[in-house]
Amino acid sequence: MLSRRMLLGTSMAAFSGLRAEGAAAGLRAISAARGVLFGTAAGSYQLRDGDFQAALMREAAILVPEYEQVREAIEPEPGRFDFAGADLLTSFAGRSGMAMHGHTLVWYAANPKWLDEKVAHAPDDEIFTTYITRVMQHYAGAYRSWDVVNEAIWPQDGRGDGLRVSQWLKRFGPGYIDTAFHVAKLADPKALLVYSDWGCEGGEAWNDVFRAKTLAFLEGAKARGVPVEALGLQGHLNAFGPPVDQAKLRTFLDRVKALGLKILVTELDVDDTKAPREIAARDAAVADATARFLDVVMDNSATAAVLTWGLSDRYLHKPEWLPDYTPRKLPLDADLQRKPMWNAIARAFGRRV
Ligand code: 9MR
Q1: Rounded to an integer, what distance in angstroms lies between the CA atom of residue 41 and that of residue 222?
Q2: Which residues contact ligand 1 via a Cβ below 6 A?
Q3: What is residue 10's predicted lDDT score, i.e. its pLDDT?
Q4: What's the whole-model pTM score?
Q5: Is 267 designated active site?
Q6: Which of 32, 65, 93, 292 is most exposed by smallest CB count within 10 Å?
Q7: Residue 166 clears pLDDT 50, i.e. is over it
Q8: Amino acid 318: pLDDT
Q9: Whose CA is nearest to atom 7 of ligand 1?
């Protein structure tokens, strides 16, 4: 059971005191003043770093467990639930007046080793419905939103409906997604239920197909009365890859909004591995990619939150194949100083009237 303090922590009233902070304000206050909240993914180990904790409190209105709420973390053995890491983040958020976003309940990846075999031979859908209910009820009342189903679209698998041929689809058919959302709605009726994926941002031909299949799925879900309430655009961008196509993204988001859905950016970060060594040039390219994406996202009045996949470069891993490279893909640098990406995010919130 979660404490009363934790529950109270999610109230909007907690942000009101931050609104008057002025120019030095963090993204938390800047975003709250615009009614669109900024948040970030975090790991519970980061809470042991006092400076990092302070940065989270200054910048984030929403926290999301980066890896401690996937099924391999929560249910490492059948029926043994380990909420420890995600509970630490949830308590911290509650004490600090932040909201929580859950990540994620039904995904083809990051599952415990024992699960796939069990899914293949499951007598019924309790293998995921009981899990959704158990986890959401553990946090009920303390979570503002949840990624209920993650990355279920993958047109490259060749199905007409564009759905990924995952272990869930193979055993239960395409209806598993509808079931997951219905069960989630019953488990925590107040949480905003999100479908999150990563193929809708880009401008390439495969992104056109991805967007078409995503819209078809969302239209069908709405027509069937499925409680999908928001689309999560993960927002894993590339500073030196194919850019976001602003016109295509704008049209797509208008159609998502027309379905009555909210829009969340759920995992924004900018890959800079192909960028030049020079830090100023890399930071500028990361900021440009961020602005190009967020400017369109923020122009849509259905946008409700922007979450980055980590707050600072401090704890990013260096890729093994690039030993001399230090990633700079998040809003704060390793010293927790604001980078041009931070400015791009703050400016994007400023577009909101
Ligand atoms: O960054 C995440 C990493 O810490 C996890 O170990 C991994 C598996 O849980 O997933 C990474 O994040 C993914 C997210 O959960 C879903 N969308 C794609 C992300 C990878 O960039």
Answers
A1: 29
A2: 66-67, 70, 110, 150, 234, 236, 267
A3: 37
A4: 0.93
A5: yes
A6: 292
A7: yes
A8: 85
A9: 67
